[in-house]
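Q: I'm writing a short methods note and want an example of a predicted protein-small molecule complex. Could you take the sequence and the SMILES for guanosine-5'-diphosphate and return the bound structure as tokens? Please keep the output block clean; save any remarks for afterwards.
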Amino acid sequence: MFGGGQGVLLSSCETERGGKVVWRVFQDSVMLIAVNGGQGGGGGSSRGEELSLQRLLENVWSSMVLVLGQDELASVRNVERLKRDLRSCFSLIDQLLEEKQEGIMGNLTHCADCLVPPNPTLLQEAVENFTQAADSEFGCLMVHGRIAVATEKWWRLAPQEVVLLSALMRSLSASGSASCDYPVFLPHGSPTVAHRLLRFQLLPGADVCVLCGPTPSLLRAETTLVGRFWLPLADTLRDCLAVGERCLPGSVSLRPDVLALLLINRETRRSVSCVRASSDSSVPSRARCWELLKLFYIFSTTRYFSQEETLCVSPEEKPQRSSCEDFAPGFSHQPLQCYLVTEECKCYTLQTPQHQLFLLTPLSVPTFALRTVATHTLSAITAATGF
Amino acid sequence: MAPVPQPGAAVVADWHRDADSREFFSRILHKKRRRKFSLLESPVMPPHLAVDTVHYKVFISGKSGVGKTALAARLAGRSIPSMHYETTGIETTVVYWPVKLRESGRVLFFRLQLWDCGENALRRFDHLLPSCKEQLDAVLFLFSFTDRTSFDDLSNQIAKWSGPSDRLVKLVVGTKYDLFMHSDVTEREVTRFQEEWGSPVLRTGGEVSDGLGDVAALLNGLAENLWHQDCVAASQHSQQATGTLI
Ligand SMILES: Nc1nc2c(ncn2[C@@H]2O[C@H](COP(=O)(O)OP(=O)(O)O)[C@@H](O)[C@H]2O)c(=O)[nH]1
Ligand SMILES: [Mg+2]
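A: Understood, no commentary inside the block.
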């Protein structure tokens, strides 16, 4: 703040013990400050840590807008009232801080976590018809907290909104309720006018939602539409649920030497990720694999690959922000692949114009073979699913 | 308000303890815990035991933090959230509960859909309350034994819901009864309120146990009142019908 008064932009600092403090002012009104304890979260680098903290700040701000709307946050009339109203955001914010659910990468990547159903056509049709019947164009089917199918308009929401709505759906789904009618503001598309997010739990782990206006009422949508469109598809939904946390249908066979993977489609801003179950004690545990996958993503995107810029930076802020990027060690060329060998596993990233694949393998895989494993895996997935 | 039946007059109280109820309660249990029902699921009975299901919509009313979301979770047999997060929209919970009618011995599945909406959300968004009121069958008015003001405000709350068409079951539920050591509301006050109000105050609190014994009194009480209301309405309706015939 002192620096700001002198026209200096300071965006983060570090404590002696390696803790990191990052902050940002949103809408000239609210300053959010994120502090971490020093270890971890950054792929071992300060820039990596900054990336995850910056992401956290953006996500927290967007959650606040999602629940309260921008007007209430941008022009604060009564601080006490705002403090009380902010409590409504705590559930989402805590979820962002805790990152409890394994296998959810979207908060970090700002790509939608997806699950590829074995039979998408039927489900796609059902989501479209259901959405239309609910007077909406925005509809989405979530399975195990990931998007299985969605309407075209849903995919045209800002990537960050898709990620945030997914997070909200996960928390509503975890509460075990059968249906919801939640007022939501869209941080990019509609920050000052609330829409209604209707959500219906079709089967445990399978939820459908639509974003709509004043009609239909929750009761009417539930009694007249849910059974009509989804009862005939109960078995298809069960097949889809059976895909489980693998997120890829049985038609994709992964090589046994793939421990974990994260595949991002750079055009559609969607991702699938999975960790393979293994009883082998020489490889890291499932939980550790998820952690390593995140760290490796941060490592490679901050050092070598650009993450697609979805940072929700306002136009006037942009020149300032990009000026701090200039300090980063620049490459004269664009890397296409990178690898990393650690004490726990080996990691490999492959980038094509359309995809980024992040892969973990056991130490037993020879380093020279990593590239083959990665190219095979990428083509196995894209050939079988068209992801 | 229509006279409320004596507890246990219309439905068999504590039926879940009787041997002949096991066939029915087993349909709402899974591994000794309550089964959770999503929208496409319902209890399935073998053909020779097929029973009717009656549907009701129930709204849970009360100030923020009184325990609305916890009550919905408890009645469905889910564990109670330890943190208090505001419910920032409408959330509904589906509860199936088998009931045996005393007179006829007939068994029915009650499908109760509990509607829970945070007070702040109701205040901030005008469309939520009408949505909660649409085709409503019952309101549960909650007060907390640890919050005096929530008890004092009951008459106000109830008054807001008395309209010309009075086909609405209204029950009062005291929450956090397990924290009686810190109770702000005395037994005498509750007794006096029951006498004035002409209907019992139900109580809940404590850990969710097997999901039957801890909720049976409340669910049977609610079912009984809903059934009674339907019977009264049906008899009025048939009287009117015969009236016009003559
Ligand atoms: N001890 C105890 N705590 C309860 C009970 N019901 C709710 N709570 C706690 O009270 C807080 C608020 O409950 P909640 O249901 O979220 O309130 P709501 O705002 O009315 O939905 C939570 O921390 C609950 O754990 C109860 O019966 N006994
Ligand atoms: Mg609540």
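A: Remarks, as requested: Residues 46-68 of chain A form the longest helix (23 residues). The CA atoms of residues 195 and 213 of chain A lie 6 Å apart.
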